[in-house]
Each structure stands twice: as structure tokens, then as C-alpha cells.
Structures
1.
Amino acid sequence: MKRWLLIAVAVMAVSGSAMAAADGRLIILGFDGADARLTEKWMAEGELPNLARLAEAGGYARLNPTVPAQTPVSWSTFTTGRDPGGTRIFDFLVRDPNTYMPAFGVAQETERQFLWGKHNPVVLLAIAAVAGWLLLFVPLRLFKRRWAWATALLPAVLLGAGAFWVGSHWVPTKIPQVINNRQGTPFWRVAGEHGIESVVGRIPVTFPARPFPNGHLLSGLGVPDVRGRIGSPSLFTSDPFFNLGSDNEFSIEVVHLSKASGTIHTKIPGPPNRLFGSPPEIDAPLTLTVAKDRKALELETCGQHVTLHPGEWSPWMSVAFKFNPLLAVHALARFRLLQLNPEIRLYLTSLQFDPEHLPPGFLISAPANWAAILKREVGPYKTAGWAVDTWGVSERVVDEDVFLEDVKNTEEAFRAQLRRFLVGNERLLVQYFEFTDRVGHILFRFMDPGHPAYDPARAPRYQKAFLDTYKTMDSIVGEVEKSLHPNDVLIVLSDHGFSSWRRSFNINTWLARNGYLALTGGKGKVQDLETLFDRGQFWPNVDWSRSKAYSLGLGGLYINLKGREAKGTVAAGSEYENLRRELARRLEAIVDPETGVHPVAKVYMREEVYHTFDPDIVPDMIVTTAQNYRISWQSALGGMPSELFMDNARPWSGDHCTMNPAVVQGILFANRPLERQQVDMIDVYPTVLGLLKQEPPEKLEGTPFIRTGG
């Protein structure tokens, strides 16, 4: 009987494999920010042979991104088949209508009770006392000691008292919890519920990782670093005069060293103390020893020693941030010694959560232990969703070469994961790479002679580096192609393209100058803005009781609506609609006097681009900018610089976030002919489900672009 059972199981397994082979695998490669125009240019020049081969076979089209063309927005539509109104992911930032203050749009942080919450000390006392009493009473009773119960009582009371103290001082009552704001059903969940096995690697807006049937997932953009930020590296320097000042928009932590020689004791800035409050931040010890010849620096932290010479990276180092003897957060990070003479400059990457030692409830993979398994199988990797370090080069703390070293190191780790996934048997494989986007942000100024930060002497070097990034993308596609079987389908896409960011538009300044955003103590004239603007505040000196409209985030324009905003002034109905039309007309008519260009390309009413939406959450209008223009950083957070337009001379020189989607089209490749050339991101979801022969969970607006019948 057992023999026949084994034969039956084997036959079923072979049949299942044959069926999977007949259906073929579906492999989807996502490259953030890969631009259509650049890709087409370099394909025509013969630099991207693997992508060119797909295009020549009819498998290429420009891909129209969402409105706005932002990474979390577009990838959420990719994931669920809903437009941004339906996913509720419509910007990096959202506003609270009660306070007008910004919050992270992808997810929100709350708290949840840890163990028994405020009753932890009492419960631990009871558990320890009872357990201690039993551990003593039972052996005493076996040896027939008189008064065994009383003899065990005092030690039990003492043990319980100790547990009460520990519960009061070392055990938190609450711990942070993150809630993903994205709505909709991911296509991999639909597949998993119908028995299709899948692997999903680093798609944005998948944190916290949600378990789903027959699948493994590693979260992407949305996973913070250990300090709770999108990224926060540190610079250790002995230069007492070094200061990034108010230009430090990207939150680099500067640690001043007490001296530049000998042995130096310092600390690695760690996470904020959200468990106990005091001390406000948890640090880890770091000891630096400068060699007498000043040619090497020895680092020691958490029992690890490494010696670095200028220009060298350390291996991955494990750093423990101890809240108390019971609780610690474990991080992985790498140092790079920038210089040692005359002053020390030591750079530390953002602190990554160690996949093998994650805090309770901090789910970066599904199943929860899969992130640790990947680390053991393919080596350490960055867990933060924004993995490539763009902050150091943006603030000119490191140069472009150091930035590109980090790009390469980061990409190689995730490429190793892809190779691991390719040898599996899963029918659906989805893998995301971010390096194309990050290089676009930092190096685009070298591609554009009209950019304020263009440097003709260095341009050829970094134009080649930019091209090399796309060649790496092409190489990854070629490597995957070699693993394909005849029935396998490959889709390669990006969420948006790129453009040069030459000029910034301060939209809230325009709103204030034109009477839509009122300021206390003035009527919103230029001199009032110059006097009242305070870089240290959100919404400096705004009088909401007299304001009609405001912009927050990257392109979101909100009406100060009565009954919705806390201090709304505009009535619903005709007043609201007339104001929207007036704002759209006037914004689109603005001319930059220095260039003669209309910086606002198109103002979309939300109902023009979103089929469904929550009117209390989604912006009333979406402002998109022309090529070479972007809404300023200051405007995104409610700031109002005195100038209406500003040159962008910073290294962060390429962008897409507020640009009209027609300006920043992405790419779409497949190893199957496409049925049409007009393709939107919302069309990917029905195409994927069609290729997997699955019905969508709801009515979809998109339509497939690859024939799935016959």
C-alpha cells in the first residue's frame, strides 16, 4: 500500500511540474526610474543589446506613469491595478486636515500593547513568584521537608519582587507598529490564493510584509532605517568648524570628534528611545585609533575590530543599540574612511535592521523568517527600502565616486538575491531594482549642459557612469533571459522616467503673493514673505482663517474647504469649483521671467485622473510641472521662500516627482509582442493576471497589452 501511495505522490509531483512547465514562468523585473528617451537613445547606439533584441521583436513601448509620477504612487498601481485614488497612495506626503501638518503617505506609525501593557510588572511578578515557589516547593516536598510551602515562600517573594522591578524598568508597555496605507489586492495574493507559488523582491509599499498563500516576499520602499527615517547616515569628523547648517535637508548626523590623533572614544547615533523616553536617543560605543603614521584608522565597536586606510570600505559591521540588559536593536552598517589627514572624516552608512535580529512585530518579509534566510544564503544586504545612499552626495559630504561605489555594492547584493530566486520553481517571480532611479537623481546634471550645476570638465566621466547604470540593467535582463524556457514570459518595466531639474517653483510663495494663502501681519506681499518666512517651522505665520488654498507634498493642491479643513473658508459647491478653475487657469498661465517658460505644465482635477477617491484625503488638484522644473523642497513641506523661482544647483539634479507624466515616461519590454503602443501603468495588473490565467478580484480600469488566449 505504501509503495502505491509513493508512486501516486510521485506521479502527482511530475504532473504538477509538467503543468507548471506548460504554463511557463512569469518573471517581472522592475527598474525604478529607467527613462524611455535615454533607453531608446542607447539602444539605437548599440549599448543595450538585450533590451534592443526585445524591442526588435515587438516587445517594447513607452509606459505612461501615474499622476503624479512618483515611485510609491506608480508601484502601488502596478501592485493592485487601482489608480492612485483607489490605492490611497498619491504622494510621498499627505496632510492632516485638522492640523495642516504633513505625514508620510505610504504608512503611518501607531503603537500597540506589548505583552500585558501597563500590567506587565504585576503579571511578571505573579509568574515569577509562582514559578519560583513551585521550583522550590516540589523538590522540598519530594524530600519530605517539613514546612516546604513556607520555606519556598520567601525566595518566591524575592523573585517576584525582582520580576516586578524588571517589568517596571526594563519592559515597555507599548511598542511601535506600522500600518500600510495602500488599498487593493496585490496580484501575487490573487495568484497565491489559486495555488501559484511566487517570490516578490523589494516592490515598494509592501511594508509591513503581509503573508500570502504560496509565496515569499521581501519588503521594499517604506522600510525605515534603524533611526526610523528613510535614511540617515553619519559623518565623524575632527574638524571643529565642519557644519552642514540649514542646508542639511537630508538629515546627515554630524558627530564631532574630540581630537584628530591617538585613541578617540565616541558614539554611533542610534534610534530614538520610543520605548522608555529616557535617554532620548540610544547610542552605541565607537573607539577610533589613529596610526602614528596617520595612514590607517582602527575602529572598534561591539567587540569588532577593523582597520581602514583612506578610501576603503569596512565589511558589514554589527552594531547593538542597548536600551537595557534585556532589550537591544541590532543594526548592520559599513564605514568608509574618507580622509585621515589633516582631519579625520569617517562616513557611516544608514543603519540597516539586521534581518536575523529584528524587533518584535517588525515584519520586513513574509514569512517573517525569510529575510534572515536570505541573509544566510546570499549574504548581508540593505533592509531599508531606500537602500542606495543618496544623502551623502546630496549634501556634498561624499563625492560622486563614493556614491557610485555604494550603488554598485547595493545592486550586487540584490542581484545575488535574484540569482537565488531564478533557480527556484516558483511560477511567478517579481524583482525590483532601484539603482537606475538613484543615479538619475544624482548624475542628471552631467547629462544636461543647461543645468546650473553642469560641469563640462567632469561631464564625460559621469555621463559614462550614467550609461554604465543602464548597461547594468541590460546585463541583468540578459542574465534572466538565459534562464528562460520557451513558455516563460519576461516583462521589464519602470515606474517613470526622468528629466533634468534646473529650476524650482515655490508654489506656496505664489499662493501667498496672490492672496490665496494669507499670512499673519500682512497681505502676502513679497516684503511680508521676506520678513515672516522662518525655515524652522512648517507653515510659518499662515493665517488659516483667511486662506483659500495651500500646497503640500509634491504637487498636491488643497482647497481650504469648510467642514473638511479645521479652519476652512471655502464653501462646497460653486465657490469650491470656481476657485479650482481659477487656480488651474492662473497656475498654467505663469511664466518664468528668466526663461520665458510656463513652469506649470498641467493642473489636473482629481476626478480627471482618479476613478474613485476619498474626497477628504486626496488632493483637490494635482499640479504637474514642465520639463526641467519641479516643485521645491520647501514648498513640499509648507515653506515659502521669498523667491518665486530658484536655480537648482544641488547634486540632486534629476527628478520626476512633480513633472507631467508625458515628460517622464518609463519603459515596458516583454519577450512577447505587445498588442499596442499606448500603455499605462494601470494596464500591467490585468496583463499579469491574464498571463497567470486568473480572474481579477474587482472591476479593473486597465486592459491587457499581451495576448493571453490561444
2.
Amino acid sequence: MKKPRIEPLIQPDKIINYWKKEKKAVAFIVIFGLGYNISTVMGPIYQGKLLDALLRGDSFNAIVQLAVIFVLLIAIIQLMRHMKRFYTRRFANSTSAAMRLIIYNNIINKSYIDLQHENTGDLMTRALADVDLCVDGMRKFTTEVFDTGVLMSAYFVTMLYYDVKITILGALFIPVAMLIAEKLKDIIYKFSIDYRVKSSVITGMTYDYIDNAMLYRINGLEKQTREKYDLELEDLQNKAIKANILENSMQPIYNVVAMLGVIMVIYLGGTKVIAGSWTVGNFSTYMIMFAALAAKASSAAKLFNSVQKSRISWQRIKPYLGEYRTKNTVQNIMKDHTVLNIEKLTFYYPESKESIIQSINLTARQGEIIGVTGAIASGKTTLGLSLLGLYPYTGSIRIDGKELRGYSEYERSQMIAYLGHNPQLLSDTIYNNITLGSNEDITAVLQDVCFDTDLEVMPDGVNTLTGNRGIRLSGGQQARIALARTLLNKSKIIILDDPFSAVDMKTEEKIISNLKEHYQDCLIILISHRLAVFSHINRIVLLHNDRTVEYGTHQELMEKSEIYASIYNLQQLAGDSNE
């Protein structure tokens, strides 16, 4: 398997390493950047020579020769400029991809607990907008080191050759423009960081409104949410104006300040022309270079502000730029018998001091279906989540004699399949929602979840698009597609949390029958508040709100647990009345 290109990058949280990583592109940037900017001064020089030749009335051949040299020189300069831009853009594109890959790698390697505390909008802003701003600042800096720094030096040295006094007096105002920009950078930093934070808030609100649009509409909250969103957008707009107004509105001022020296250049340069020590071509060359020098000085001033904005984005993404980590894909999993031993399992959510489940004891083996039920908030879902190893737990959970936390994350994902309350469908085809990119035959699993009859009325069959979050399908169809995905690989342990809430009882009974017949190599943990099929499964764990637990078969609990018997009988009565 080919390793990711980003893997060799050492210390990705140090910005200099991105230039080191792209050393080949950077080398070409240096070569063409120096060549382009140093040779650029030859353009005005030869333009002045051509002007003098015309004014002197030189021969046609001499003028044509100068013109050809001038055109060829400009062509070579522009070619070097093109190559410099090409490699600068290549550096920027590679750096952007590298940063995004590292951020993505950091996110997928975060623990489930850490991810729960992340804000989706903030993550998206950092991974997209902040990376773009940061890389754009790096690109501009890389470009302006040559297009401003080297070019200004080339112009200044050449102008000194023409006249030291005029050059020094004319350039006095250039440092002033750059000093103004330097003084404004702290103000721009403050406004920019306010804008970036507010942008993250808006992104998060956008995701929330998309996800809950129907909820707000049904409850008549569209107007309130729209008004709140508009207020936040207005605040974002105000912060954007403050963040950009200084940078963009100051550009003309930088130009004016830097160009103030042109008065001295015109006066002293004109005097030299009148005195005959300068030709008209010399004066034209000098004026062109001075104007270019002043313009580049204002660009350098603006660069300070752009780099400042880039620094803000760098600080925001830096915490996500840890060393690239590869997933451990080595499996040390027993292929044959599956034995699950749970002893004195107690579970706390990280932010809670009170246990959700307490002293659970259970031994189960492949081929069994273990039911988990209980009152609302008794810990049914928590028990299922604790068996995934996503949260820390006390007590013991052993699979085939090995503690759950002793398995790698990858090994747990290969051993345990989980279906939660929400189907979590992709906006894709039914086939891709079940296979998640693998090339598997899903005929059998569709029959196991009783979806084969649904496909008969779908013209596109398994290629039917589900829509965003499965909106084109009924709730029962969404649930069964998610169930099919969970069952597809016949994992050693399959945990199903309320998988039949949107399915009628007859279909539920048929699916349970299929599970018992076709998944005898699996251990299935069935979490449900519906007890209709519990008479067909092996054993049951009954959780109570006081954290006590009862164990037994359906018949045993019917005899010894008044609560279980009462719930089962009421559900049976309700089912009979519905028929």
C-alpha cells in the first residue's frame, strides 16, 4: 500500500517545514524568482536606450536591432515570471493538500470523547477557510520575497548607479509607507481574529439549520431562527468590514506616501536633463524604475497585513497539525469461537459523576441473541456503547479472553458492528449505503432484513438514491438499510440498538428469524424497548433505573419479574388491538 505523501513531513506544526518539504519547487521558485526580478530592470534600461536612439535619429538597422533585443528580453523575463508563478502555485497547492490531510488525520484519530466536544462549523472553517488563508499568506510571502524584496533591491541599486543623491532623496518616503503598515498590523490582527471566530459560529448555525429545517418549520420557529441568523450575519458582515477596511482602504494611502518622492525626482532629474548630464532616455528609465519601486513599496506594506491575517489562521489550525498517524491495521483476532465475558461493568460518562450502569455481569457466546431492555434512562444504550470501547469503563469486558481496551481501535472495528438509534444514511445509492465503498454482494443481507420486496417496486433497484439522510425513503426502509449495513460483514459481535422502532411487528419477527438462522457465527446484542420478539431469543438483561439488574430467559423473567411481565403483556395487548 502506497504511503501518504504527507507522512515524511516532520513537525507539521512548524511552518518552515512546509517549505523544506517542497524543496524542489522552492528551489525553482528561487532560481526563476531571482532571474525574473533581477533581469526586470533591463526592460526600462533598454526602453530608454531605444528612446534615445529614436531621438538621436540612429539608423533604421540600429533601431530595429535595439527593438529586437528589447522584445526578446521582455519575452525571457515574462517566461521566467511564468515559471516562478507556476512553481509558487504548485508549492501552494501541495501545502494546502498537506495541511488538509494532516488536519483530517488529526480529526479521525481523535477519541470519540474529544470529537463530541468539537463544533462542526468551527472544524469546517479551520479545515477549509483557515487553511486557504494560511496558504495564501505563505504563497504571497514566497512571491513577494522576490517580486518585492529582490525587485526593490534591483531597482534601488540600479537607480544608485544613475544618481546616488536623487535616489536617496526620492526614496525617503518609502520607509514611511512601510512603517504605517507595520503600526496597523496589531489592529488588523484583532479585527481579523474576531471575524474568523464569528465565521465559525455562522458555519455551525448553518449546519444546524440545515439539519433541523423540518423541526423548525413544523414548530413554527422559522421566523425566529431566520431573524437570529440574520442578526448573526449582520454581525459577521460588520466584523468582515472592520477586518478588511484597513487593509484595503490603506493601499491608496501607501501608494501616495511612497510616491511623494517623485517631486524630488522630477525636479532634480529634469535639471540633469537640461544640464545635459542625463539624456531623455536616462530620465525615462529612471522615472519608470522609481514608479515601480514606489509601487512595490506599497505592495510590501500591504503584504504585512496579508501575512498578519495568515498568522491568525495559522494559529487556529496549528493545534490540529500533529504528526501524521497511521491506523494500526494488524489483526490479532481469533477467527473461531466468540466468548464475551462482562464482569462488574460500571460506566460513567466523562462529564458525569453518577454511574449510568453498575455491576453488569454477563457471559455470552456466538450463536446467541442477548436481549437488553429496561425503563427509559435505565442505561440500555449506554451498555451498548460501553461494549464498543469508545469510552473508559471500570470492571472488565473480555472478548475471547482479552480485555476490550487491549484491542486496537482497528481490531475493535473489525470485531464489533454497531447500529445506533439514527440510521445515518449517506446521500447515495442503497448499494453504497450498505457496502460503504466495498464491492460486496448484498442480495442475501437484503433478504435477511426483508428489503428485497421493497426493491421490487424501485425501478433502479439497489442503485436507488436515498437522498440526504435517507429522505426519499420511509422510516422503516431507512432502518432496514442501516441494519443491512451492520449485518453485511457478519462481525463477531453485532450490537443493535432499537433497530425495529420503525418496523412493523411481523417484519420484526421475520428479521429475528433470519438472524437466528443465518448469523449463528455471530453474537448479537439486541437492545430494545419492544419485547414482542424477546420470547424468541436466548437470554435477557433487564435494567432498572435504580441501577439494579435482572437476568434470565424470557420465561424466567415472566415468572420472577413483575415489571418485565407487565410490560410484555401490555405490549402484547396493544399489538392485538392494533390488529
3.
Amino acid sequence: MSGLAPNLFDRRFQDFMDMGRARLPSLAPEWTDHNAHDPGITLMELLAWTAEAQLYGLARMRRDERLAYAAMLGLLPAGTRAPTGYLWSDRQDPSSPVRTFAKTRVIAPEVAVNVVGVETPSFRPMDRLLWVPGKIVGLKTHYADGRVTDHTMVNEQGRTFFLPFGRAAGRQDVLSMEYKCRDDRGIFSGMQRKEREGARLAIGIQAALPHGGAGIEKVAELNPLNGTPLDAVLVVGDNRLSIKIVSDSTQGFLATGVLLLDLDHVESVPQRFTIELRARNGFPRPPRLYHLEPNVIPITQGQTITREPHEATGLPDWSFMLEATGLRFARGEEPLLALSVAEPTGEKPWYRCDRLSEQGPQDDVYEFNTATGEVTFGNGINGRLPPRGSLILVSYAVSEGEEGSVARNRQWRVAGFDGVFGVNLEPISGGASTTGWIGERREARRRSTEDHALVSKDDLVAAALALPLLEVARAWVPKPDERRPRTGEVRLVALRSRASDEEPKTVPETKRWLEAIRRRLMDRMPLGSRLVVMGPGYVEFSIRTVIETHPGRNPAVVKQAIETQLRKRLAVVDVGSDVPLRQPGVPVTQRDLAAWIRATDGVKRVVELRLMRGDGRTIKEIRVSRSGLPRWDMTRSIIDVKRPAAGGVR
């Protein structure tokens, strides 16, 4: 980030004047008098003087001022971004530690994790973890109406997805995981409280990818949730104890990740216990999972360099470079650089400063360039000199960035466990090198032009379609009603993706889903405007028709072709066909349906056709509102396809 402040004051007044004069012939060819007495030249001199003064001020801004200006554009200091991922037990390996070990362990953050047979790149756990060998003996969904669905076998196989909170996924729907430890002494296996303090129980979630929308390509960019929408309860017999979810990288069960549970305040847990999970306000859309499993290890690539030695020369303005490259620190945070100087009087920590020129002769400070990894000390007047021969000890974290990525389904070793620990079901990815100041300047320019308030209709629609994990398939802003007063209210109509080209039985645009879209977009709306997100006004209808095929055609095949044709023509979201989507407010008539059916291969004629509303009334046209769409109920429709009658005259 220090690259945001190169030496900007490298151009002077005359430089700007020369640049301006050189561009005058191309920008204003009719302007021929470029002498000092011309008013235009006087104005150019004024602008050149202003630009010189501004550059002079910018080049002398403090580091905190530069960071504040960069933060206004969303640019925060960041080092090398480390690849991250998750280690699961190998369900195909009967000798996996989670199946053979009995005693609970604490896995420290500094434990080495590596791909089998490969020493580099090295990985580390992302937190202090409580590893509890055992088995899920029951995974059930308890619905608000009292129904119960058992997912134990489906979860163990991990081949097809299931709905852990049902299709409604409301606030009263609960996912219950019953777990049995291998150690009969219980989850803590006789460990002292101090020994397990700060260790988190990790529950891994392998989620199915969203049905369309912007989720597939943007899931990797999401950060773990600290304020999770989930609640967790530990159930032991008749006792219920709320437990805190420290971190949630699953985005509320919508993406693959882990839940880290804090058990520090729990006194003891027997061999068999239950953890209940639910969303306090319901889910914006029903989560879909392939597999849920405790003891998944979240890992990150990198290592910590501890007490790297450098010998001081005693010279003014002495500096040295960190031996390891790829300094790692999170966006918006200070690098975790710990520096101490071992002097004859003892070892003493020194501290980083923004500018040595602002320090006194006795200040134990240094400058640190995060872009180059250079540490610089003072000259005895501005910042104290480390004594000659004293040992400088520095500790910091590094990562190999994108070079540390690992493909999926690799076998892994974890220090302290014999043999293969597990596999990564998804690639270890997300690493990136530090962006130089040129890249940061380019990103600042992009954000200044693109990341703006949602002013126009196109802005709002594009932002809605770009929301990750919510499966927004289609959106539009309807024209305002001229008869209603202008109150600053903006209406957005949004449609959810469908799992197939057949319309679901219930309308997928629930109130919770629409409210989730509104919450995520409202912060980007202009001050004084009010956003209303709503679903389209659906009008349910069905058809009853009798079709006669051409001679020799199979009625079942023709019927299937008719259903496929109608699904394409009446689709409200993109299903990958070459037929344009239906526009809101456009009705469906008997004439339209008859034309589509007759155009189907194998159809000779339409003998009978009736169009019916959802209430069973027969009508000639399905009318919809300006923001409405017709919704074909295929299950209630009757399409009777017959062969032509034998003999007779047609």
C-alpha cells in the first residue's frame, strides 16, 4: 500500500506548461496565439500552478491520510493473499484417523499440513481446533409442523444433495446432528479446561452450487461471516445450552465451508450428544447440501518466520530486506511484523512508524515498506540507531500466493497423525500476489467510475443479478404509474432461478428471499430513495386440449414434444432455449397456444383447446398486470394426443 505514495512531486510548473503547449495544436487547432499575453495561456499557467501545489501536498501526506483517501474508494492495504481450503476425512479409507483414533485432540494453528509426498507448499490450520473422533448417528430435519426427515444415509453417501431445512427453510425448521464420540469418556476425554481453551469444534458443510445467478463464480470471493444468521444449541439429555458460532464461512449454509463452535463455557459433554442448528430469521432460500461432517480442518497456505536474525551495522539509515518474500496480512489490517533488538542491556521491542523524519533521537522505531519488505532504521537524530553488532530479531507471516494452489482430491498429512489424514474435496484456491501501486491505481480508477450509487434502472438490475448465492435469474424495474405521486420509491421485480424448465409447485420468490435482495442493495441506493423488491404478479393457468397426430407418429413422443415446446414458450426465466423470454404484461391467448401446438412436429390438428384459470374458469385469454407473468401449471393440464381415426373422411 505504500506504493500509493510514490514521489509524486517529480513535475514542476514548467513541465505542465510544456505538456499543455504541446497538446494545443491537436485539441484547439484554431488557437494560434500561444504567447504569454494570451488569456488562454494565463489560464493554463494558473492550472499548472494549482497542479504543482496539489502534487507537492500529496507527496507529503502522512501514511494514515493516504490510507484514508484510498479507503474512500474501497482500497485497503493487503499483502499476499493465501490460498485456503478444507480437509475432509476420506470416506473410502477405513484407516482414516477419524475412524481409528479414539481420543480427542487439540490441533494448534502452527501444526504443519502438507500434501502426501510433497513438502512444499506448506499449510497451517486457520484456527485452534478441537478434533473429536466419532460418527454421526443421526442427521434429521425437524419441521415446524412436527414432521421429521432423516438424512443420515444420504449424508453419509454424499452423492446427492438434500434439503437440511426443507423447502420452506423457515425459522422454526431445525437441523439436528446426533454425534457419538469414539472415546466413552466424552467429547473432552478428560482434558483440563486450560488444555482445550480456545479450541473450536469445526463442522464442515459441502453445499451444492446455486441454480444459476451470480453465485458460481463469486462464491470464492466471499469472506467468512462473523455475524452468522445461524443459532446453535448443544443438547445433552434434557439440558439445552446455546453455543456461540465463532466463524461461518458457509454464508449461512449456502456455500461450502465450516462452522467454528465455541465450547469453552461447556463443562462436560458425554459420549453421545446432539447439536441443533437453525436460522433465527429463516433462510433467504433453502440450502442444499451434499455432506455435513464434524472435524473438517480449514487450512491456509503459508508459514510464520520466527525470530529471523539480522546484525546491525551501526550506520545511519541502515536497512535490511526480509529474507522470505510474500508478506501475508489481511486487507485493511497491519502486517503482523514483530521486531526486537537484542542489546547488551537486554532484548527490547521496537515499533513501526510512518515517517522517521518525525521521530526523535531516542525513539525506538523503524520504517517498514510492505511492498518491498525493507526495514529501515533512523540516523540517530530522527530515530535511534541500533548499536553496532546488536542482533535484530524479526517475526512475520508469508505465503506463496497463487503458487500455493492445490487441485481437488489430493491426500494430505497432518503433523501428529500417522498416515493419510484426509482429502480436499474442493481445490485449495484463492491465493493472489500483492498488487503493486500501478495495479492499485488502476483499481482506484475503475472503482471511481463503476462503483457508484444505483441511480439508473440498468444499475439496479445489474446489481441484483450480480448478488452471489441468491440465484437471481431475472430482474427489471417497471415503469412508474403516472397516477401515483412521486415519493422516491423505486420498485424492482426479481425472479429466482429454477432447478429445471418445469415451474415449481410453489412460487419460489418468497418474502425472505425478496427481503434479502432489498437489504443487500439498499445501502447503494441514493439518499432519500426507498427500494421495494417484489416478485412478479403471477397468474396461474392450465390447459385442456385434444391433439390429432399425423399417421404413423407415436402419440407419447408427440405429447412430450408439445410439453417441451410449451415450457420453452411459457418460461419466465432463461432455461437455455433459443426462444425469447416472455415479457411482463403480455397475455396468453388460445390463438397463441394453438399456433405453438400446431408448429410442433407430428401434430396434424388441434381438435379441442380450452384455457383455464387457476380457479377452474374457462377463458379465452390470460391477462396479466404490467409487472405480471403467466404461470403454466403443467400438473393440472391435460394434453390428450390421439392417433387419427381409421377410415372416414376428414
